[in-house]
Amino acid sequence: MTNSAEELVLIGRVSGAHGLKGELKMRPYSGEPESLLSYSRLLLALGEPESTPILHKIERSRAHKSWAVVKLEDCNSRTEAEKLLFASIYVYEDDLPELDEGEFYLRELEGRFVKTEEGQVIGKIIGLLSGGAQDILQIDNNGKEYLIPLVPEFIVEIEEDAVIMSLPLGLLEINA
């Protein structure tokens, strides 16, 4: 039921059922429940490894505390909602909201190099980890992995192919 030609973006996880009429508690990885309210459709995937994501139309949604409460058109009871517990939530890349000038999605950093202000290449960004207080860049340098907090104080500039960072003395050695 998915269009494999369109790239899917993982945006969150179903964390529970809400009420008796099939509503779901959804936690977006952005930490902002309002970020889920603009979508008219979502794809959900269950299991380990995950199954093929299945498209669902949204009947209604609202922010509530630290999650979004979402009612899918095809989920009409608490029993049906509980079957979707812990499902991964995806959207089509084309459905992501437009960003303002100078803004970017964190996933767009993957594949870019991380360099110091002096031009030293630290490595290539291979992933992003959620660290609770801040996101963490996962960087590969010829098989050696560095984990660097992605905080505004460290970022000097974001270029087309690189992230220029000013790192505290000793941070890279902690990863050694």
Automatic annotation (TrEMBL):
One Pfam family this sequence matches? PRC_RimM
Q: Does the keyword Flavoprotein apply?
A: no
> Organism's domain of life?
Bacteria
Which GO cellular component terms, listed alphabetically, does the Swiss-Prot or TrEMBL entry include? cytoplasm; ribosome
Q: What's an example of a GO molecular-function annotation for this chain? A: ribosome binding
Entry keyword Transferase = no
- The RimM N-terminal domain extends over 11-94
Query: Which BP terms from GO are recorded?
Result: ribosomal small subunit biogenesis; rRNA processing
InterPro entries noted in UniProt: PRC_barrel-like_sf (IPR011033), PRC_RimM (IPR056792), RimM (IPR011961), RimM_N (IPR002676), RimM_N_sf (IPR036976), Transl_B-barrel_sf (IPR009000)
Print the keywords alphabetically: Chaperone, Cytoplasm, Ribosome biogenesis, rRNA processing
Q: Where in the cell is it found?
A: Cytoplasm
Ribosome maturation factor RimM PRC barrel domain: residues covered: 108-171
Please describe the quaternary structure of this protein. Binds ribosomal protein uS19.
Give the record's family classification: Belongs to the RimM family.
Note what the entry says on domains.
Answer: The PRC barrel domain binds ribosomal protein uS19.
Q: What does this protein do?
A: An accessory protein needed during the final step in the assembly of 30S ribosomal subunit, possibly for assembly of the head region. Essential for efficient processing of 16S rRNA. May be needed both before and after RbfA during the maturation of 16S rRNA. It has affinity for free ribosomal 30S subunits but not for 70S ribosomes.
Identify this protein by name: Ribosome maturation factor RimM
| Organism of origin | Candidatus Electronema aureum
Taxonomic placement = Bacteria, Pseudomonadati, Thermodesulfobacteriota, Desulfobulbia, Desulfobulbales
Q: Which gene encodes it?
A: rimM
